[in-house]
Amino acid sequence: LEYQVKSAVSKVEAMLTAHYTMEQAIPVIIRLKNLFATLNYNTHKKSIAIFISPVMEKVFHFEMEVEEKIMIDPSFKLRDLIACRRETKECLVLQLNENYSKTYLCSSNHSQVIKFNVFNKLNDVSKNEVSGFDSFQERNESALHRFLFQMDQGLSIILKAYRLPVFVMGPIDLVRYFNSITANDSSIAEYIPVRVTAHSTQEITGVTENIFANWNTLRQKQLLKKIQHAKSQNKLTTGIKETLKSTPRNRSILLVVEKKLLSHPLPPVTNRPFTKLDSGSHEIFFMKDEVDHIIKKVLEAGGEVELVDNILPAGYEQIALIEE
């Protein structure tokens, strides 16, 4: 990390001296070197963003992973950080059949089993329960219900460690049944019915190839499910004015913003728009408007920001904040 920091300072120095006079560049270079000399490396965060000018500096530590980027540009805005985020195409695939379940952690080029459970029809129902069933079929159905319920509980635990979209695959009846009992529906991007075969690895490969080929569409579909679930739980804030008033208090928050909201000028919704702040605020240099301020609050709280196409309902004013 120290090597990367020194390399970044050298790049900034070269770019400044190439595009500005020494009189303009030196104050920024000195401020930057002094800042890096006192930089805190023990924040346990994943990334850092630094805004710097001749008169001020601002450091942000974030939970998101980013691609290194250096910009020498007076129009640089806080929202530009989202474009620097390293996009990781990862998901969880829960494979169900009548004999076992497997949970895979999948990326575009790798799939790894992280949980495996065998369904034992005979042992999954206690001896005391056996006498209460009228038929062997009822006993098996009860055992299957318990097995799928346990798989859903396991999925809840996994989702605490891996905040990723989930795809559930298996025979159509099994998938439908799991859909009816799961407590994790808002995290499930799609239910994928497949025929039972002995070649589970081949099944997974085919399914994941299709998932990553349609990643953007499936991801946005899952975000809409999250929004609908948050609304039903009274954990959804929409609209610029209301979202601006919200105070994120934990990292389990997700801001969903339509891309066109960032590309068009935003009329101020406060009596003191950011674009007219006096120079003493210093935020004028990297805060364009209220959307930048909302993004700043979410990222500082350890939350995530997702940019989407035109998918939000009209009344949401192109922005929605989910408290998970």
What's the helix and strand layout?
Layout: H1 2-19, H2 22-37, E1 47-52, E2 57-62, H3 80-84, E3 90-96, E4 100-107, E5 110-118, H4 127-130, H5 136-161, E6 166-170, H6 172-181, E7 188-193, H7 200-213, H8 215-232, E8 236-238, H9 240-245, E9 253-258, H10 259-263, H11 290-300, E10 304-308, E11 319-323
Parallel strand pairs: 3-6, 6-7, 9-10
Antiparallel strand pairs: 1-2, 3-4, 4-5, 8-11, 9-11
Helix pairs in contact: 1-2
Would you mind describing this structure in some detail?
The chain is an alpha/beta fold. Helix content is 41%, strand content 20%. The chain has 11 helices and 11 strands. It has a 5-stranded mixed sheet. A hairpin with a 4-residue loop joins β1 (47-52) and β2. The radius of gyration is 25 Å and the shape is elongated. The chain starts with a helix and ends with a strand. The model is unreliable at 127-136 and 268-279 (pLDDT under 50).
Brief account:
With 324 residues, the protein is an alpha/beta fold. It has helices at 2-19, 22-37, 80-84, 127-130, 136-161, 172-181, 200-213, 215-232, 240-245, 259-263, 290-300; strands spanning 47-52, 57-62, 90-96, 100-107, 110-118, 166-170, 188-193, 236-238, 253-258, 304-308, 319-323.
